[in-house]
Amino acid sequence: MLKYSIRRLLGMIPMLLLISIVVFTLAMLMPGDPFGGEIDPTNTSPEYIEQMREKLGYNDPIYVQYFRWISDFVQGDFGKSTRYKMAVTDVIGERLPNTIFLGFTSLVITYILAFIMGSYAGRKPYTIGDNLIGGLNYLGLAIPSFVAGVFAIYFFSFQLNLFPSNGSVDITITDGTFEYWLSRIHHVLLPAIILGLLGTASYTQFLRNDIIENSRKDFVRTARAKGTKESKIYNVHILRNSIIPLVTFLGFDIVNLIGGAIITESIFTFPGIGQLFIESVTTNDYPVLMTLTMMFSFLTLFGNLIVDILYGVVDPRIRVE
Asked: Which residues cross the membrane (predicted)?
């Protein structure tokens, strides 16, 4: 397992190098730059714009710019944000805790609800409860996140006044106090519930269908014929095999945990990585944009590795040599 993990990690290097070329090229092909008047109306002086382009090397050939960027990148120098006038690591570091908090909270909601509803629907298929859960799942799959977010803000924030409609914390509260953390939880609950409920639909259906399928397998009938307790048959033989598809999702959830929900964060004006990514695209903030894209790419590859390793843990029949 260790040799396999090391081999996979080393195999990520050429893949990330290829991704870096594509990311850099696409970023440079975007119309405009951070110093054009169409991006920042205050930068209307042609002399200032040309001076900044020359200073940051935007007038150099694209291959020269790429090698300069990638050489700094591998040394841990991700550049300086052209919008915030700060180091990229500082800009991302300010948003990262909010995104991790939002992603972790939504994942807890998703897996708890999916496990409860999927297990119930799988053990009692084609009943009223199963049909009700199925209807809710299809409704969750059909509703886009931006529609659910807008309606949630309207009803729970504006009408019922139960949750705040934007931000990650009340700015009037002192940082680090107990009230501060309560405020953070209060602000993250509504977007996390929206993300969690929408993600629950597909997870529940996968678990429900796998439980039904595995309950009809030969090894389950053999266990029943031997007089094995029904609870042991379900927990050991059926449920353990049925949660394997959820392990696949878990690997990609690592990416979502950091990447955040771009649309949801934008709707709730939640200051996370997702909203930062949108801002970097609209303002042509190349250093932030390319760093975030490379981070998402690495996490995707790393998530796939975690999935393969977890397969061997969950299912003893799968062993990575």
From this structure: 9-30, 100-120, 132-156, 188-207, 243-268, 288-314
Q: How far apart are CA 185 and CA 174, in angstroms?
A: 15
Residue with tokens 């678990």: 207
CB atoms within 10 A of CB 171: 8
Contact between 75 and 168 (Cβ < 8 Å): no
Q: What are the structural domains of the chain?
A: 15-74 (no CATH), 94-282 (1.10.3720.10)
φ/ψ region of 33 (left if φ > 0, alpha if ψ in -120 to 50, else beta) reads beta
Where does the chain have alpha helices with state H? 2-29, 46-55, 62-74, 88-123, 128-142, 145-152, 178-215, 218-225, 230-232, 239-242, 244-259, 262-267, 273-282, 286-314
Record the tokens describing residue 280, joined without a space: 């970097």
Nearest alpha-carbon partner for 313 in 212, 243, 233: 243
Per the CB < 8 A criterion, the answer to whether 95 and 285 are in contact is no
Alpha-carbon span 198 to 147, nearest angstrom: 11
Q: How far apart are the first and last CA of the chain?
A: 6
In whole angstroms, how large is the CA radius of gyration of the chain?
Answer: 24
Residue 277, exposed/middle/buried by CB under 10 A (0-12, 13-18, 19+)? buried
| CA pseudo-torsion sign 168, 174, 180, 183 | negative
* Alpha helix segments (H runs only) across 124-177: 128-142, 145-152
Which residue has tokens 């714009």? 49
For 77, the 3-state DSSP assignment is coil
Q: CA angle 23-24-26, nearest 5°? A: 65
Lowest mean pLDDT among 24-33, 88-97, 112-121, 177-186: 24-33
CA distances from 53 to 39, 56, 280, 315 (A): 14, 5, 18, 55
- 149 near 262, Cβ under 8 Å? no
Instruction: Note the pLDDT tens digit of each residue in 270-303.
Output: 998 888 988 888 888 889 999 999 988 888 888 7
